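HOLO CASE FILE
Compound: zinc ion
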Amino acid sequence: MIIYKKTGKCIWCGKTEPEVSFKTAPHILPRKLGGCEIGLDVCDDCNHFFGTAEKNKPNIDLVFKEIFGSFRFFSDNLNEHSYEKYSSVYFNYLHSKQCIKIKSLFCSSIITRQFKRALYNVFFQKYHFVTGNANNPMFDMVRDFARYNIGSPLVFYSFNNLKLTPGQEEMNNPHLPITNEIIDDMMKYGVFAFFFMGEIFYLEIFPDVFQIKGMDFLQKQAQRFLVSVKGNERIFEFTDVMQLDFFMMRFRD
Ligand SMILES: [Zn+2]
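Model generated. Tokens follow.
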């Protein structure tokens, strides 16, 4: 039997065997999105937690899958009927207005918060996969937020006029890149650059460092990545799912 552990201590709850078990493969990205990387040191309880809806709160993995799945759906070359195939648990597509709306059963601020927690979840599992260092207490804020819904770390969204065009292969089997440069920047500026499926988010990881150096870093990132075509490019604080550019409007005339 495969046991999915490296340090043997759950990166989320900090528990070890026999109190918890590590028998279920923890997918770093939701399987339904095509993610095939398997993480380590996520106990079965915590693994289950991220894939389950809490009371009044949408499933964190599913929110992530639905949002990036929508990006993927609407960025494909569509014919005039393909929108009819769009289906989502949390969103409706209004063809006449060409916009996405959250279904009335769900609340935008809660979906937004669950999505932010999902970004931290994916980041943290992948970070541990690469470094084996996620048990470090310096990540308590990440644990508190993603796993226990405590706190409100800052997330930024890059609204660019250049699409970092992921290939079809990357769209079908996506993964989150974590390079030494990205880790160095995170340690130095307190913020993690989340490049995924052609979108860029920035996650505050170390608030003390971010407060001092974070905005400078974002400014430098803006100079490096943002392409000025229409003058609307910017990096801004992400506070609402509806700020996301699902339809790639920025690439149209
Ligand atoms: Zn756990």
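CASE NOTES: The helical segments are 44-50, 60-75, 108-131, 140-148, 168-172, 180-189, 207-225. Residues 31-251 form one domain.
CLOSED: yes
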